[in-house]
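Hi Q.,

Before the meeting this afternoon, I wanted you to have the cytidine-5'-triphosphate prediction in hand. No need to reply - just skim if you have a minute. The sequence and ligand are here:
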Amino acid sequence: MSRVLLGVAGGIAAYKACLLLRRFAEAGHQVTVVPTPSALNFVGETTWAALSGRPVHTQVWADAHQVPHVALGREADLVVVAPATADLLARAATGRADDLLTNVLLTATCPVLMAPAMHTEMWLHPATQANVATLREHGVIVLDPDSGRLTGADTGPGRLPEPSEIEQAALSLLDVGAASAARARDLAGVRLTVSAGGTREALDPVRYLGNASSGRMGAAIARAALLRGADVRVVAGAMTAPVPGGADLVTVTSTADLAEAMTRAAADSDVLIMAAAPADFTPASPSAAKLKKEGDAGLTVSFTQTVDVLASLVRQRRPGQVIVGFAAETAGSASELLELGRAKLARKGCDLLVLNDVSGGAVFGAADNTVTIIDGDGVVDAVAADKNLVAHRILDAVATKRRSTR
Ligand code: CTP
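Predicted structure with the ligand bound:
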């Protein structure tokens, strides 16, 4: 159990912070809520107290003998501010301490994550952008807001990311390595493209051959890379996991579409990660009309092999580009898994291969993953953890590889 301090500033998205609070509490964390006085105009103290099961602190002047503005910041393992309004960002960037939350922000030494939400004009204003840049320089991890429908009829960047998205980003920061990479923005300026999900190969206009990939690992890589400051593009096949809003999204259907989108992305990417599960075979001659049953006859379909996207990316690799493949194998033992991985790495020619054992289908859609990361010299890292943490370890290996190839 970790101690999460949830700061809530005065914006309409404060109601979504109730859902975020619930998610943290359900994940077993102790959550202390510190709303600003304006936040209480949107959601009252009773709601925060009932949902957190703890007293709510709103003022510097209450319980002064316990010096709450120092104690709350010092005791937290993680501070999350959601929503962070333009005003809160401005006050935090300049080190103001004019309410309890800004006092806490000055005393907290743990990772601080801010999820801004405001109207598009306010987000895009040079003053707000400068405040965000200052906060990031100070080691505060500031998420980019989602684009979409705002409070009125207007749309644009400024929406609070979904509570589940903030939760996943936040909880990965409880890991010391992930938090220090995110605070340092070690991938700032890096253009990273990750493929995710499964492809669908059409049999006829309504039927397809697909697979069980949820896209969760690819989405976790995108989320981790965004936290570390990268420019992220996700080439997404069929997937049930949501793609983080800060990433550029390119959707594809078949392996051929995926190959085309990845080849295009490769022209301006520093890092390419093939976390997708493309179909290896596609019906040789898909039917233009819906296939009909004929008497009690079965159906025989012949398939041709699809393009190997990863291998073709390696063939066109730009100087300094780091390419990462995944290998889903069903191996009888750890040594056999490693052998299969080494052979696949050599065959595909990528810089890093993330090996996982899919015996029993355990990986698909699960929150956790067990992987071994290898390069041409052998095992780089081995980790069994939540996919968000696995994603950070893959990015650690990518960052090391980038340093050694430059
Ligand atoms: N991959 C790809 N294009 C394909 C199939 C797979 O780029 N047509 C990529 C996957 O995204 C993954 C890696 O290749 O990064 C390995 O995928 P995997 O399914 O384990 O390997 P295969 O290439 O299918 O090899 P094999 O059938 O020999 O196991």
